[in-house]
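2024-03-11 09:14:02 INFO worker-7 job=invfold-0412 stage=load source=structure_tokens
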């Protein structure tokens, strides 16, 4: 084979390899982050008061009182947060940091829960930001299976609400509007309402929220659809492996 033909053959092989690699990348299915969640699907969830890293001293209990409903609406039994909090305090765990450090097996033994929700609030409350007053609720969450200690869901919340602030009236008007908004929010505590909306976003998001639990009317359909998708993905992977083997021969 001449040098010219050898070079042409090498270039053809490189081009074919590049094309196959591009096709494989394009057809790679999106990672399913809910496999373990479905496998260890909890019926009941113990929501612990969140660790508060924000400057709002009332953040912990303002947040936790708005967390139960969206989780329950997803189809899970949620233990009454006020009773859990009081029980923990009466048994030597006076703050969220201590509660989060409690052994999983003890939590399971005492409460009989299937999973525990741990949340850390990184930002919570109103902030005066130059020309606006913004209510922020930022948090990270983990749902941990009590039986295995494995994390079955991770959530991250970055919620901001600027209300009805506007620039009408120029710079002075914007400053006055922001100040009035912040004063009004300090009186009416609109952060509590923002927390309710933020938690709905965190737990009920169709892409990143909790799966529908066993008490949800769409639970069976959800699990069946996931099973079909897994079977189709496995069949596609098997077919791709077969095509690769044939091409190699």
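2024-03-11 09:14:09 INFO worker-7 stage=emit residues=249
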């Amino acid at each position: 084979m001449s040098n010219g033909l050898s070079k042409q053959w090498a270039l053809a092989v490189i081009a074919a390899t590049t094309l196959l690699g591009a096709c494989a990348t394009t057809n790679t299915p999106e990672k399913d982050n809910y496999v373990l969640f479905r496998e260890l699907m909890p019926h009941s969830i113990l929501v612990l008061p969140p660790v508060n890293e924000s400057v709002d001293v009332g953040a912990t209990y303002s947040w936790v009182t708005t967390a139960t409903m969206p989780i329950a609406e997803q189809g899970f039994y949620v233990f009454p947060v006020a009773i859990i909090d009081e029980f923990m305090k009466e048994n030597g765990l006076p703050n969220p940091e201590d509660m989060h450090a409690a052994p999983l097996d003890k939590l399971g033994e005492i409460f009989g829960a299937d999973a525990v929700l741990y949340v850390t609030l990184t930002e919570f409350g109103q902030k005066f930001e130059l020309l606006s007053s913004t209510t922020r609720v930022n948090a990270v969450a983990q749902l941990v299976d009590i039986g295995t200690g494995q994390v079955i869901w991770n959530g991250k919340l970055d919620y901001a609400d600027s209300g009805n602030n506007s620039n009408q009236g120029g710079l002075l008007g914007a400053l006055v509007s922001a100040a009035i908004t912040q004063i009004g929010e300090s009186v009416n505590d609109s952060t509590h309402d923002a927390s309710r909306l933020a938690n709905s976003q965190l737990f009920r998001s169709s892409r990143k929220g909790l799966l529908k639990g066993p008490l949800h009317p769409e639970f069976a359909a959800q699990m069946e659809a996931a099973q079909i998708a897994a079977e189709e993905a496995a069949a596609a992977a098997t077919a791709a492996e077969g095509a690769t083997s044939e091409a190699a021969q």
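2024-03-11 09:14:09 INFO worker-7 stage=report msg="The chain has a mean pLDDT of 82."
2024-03-11 09:14:10 INFO worker-7 job finished
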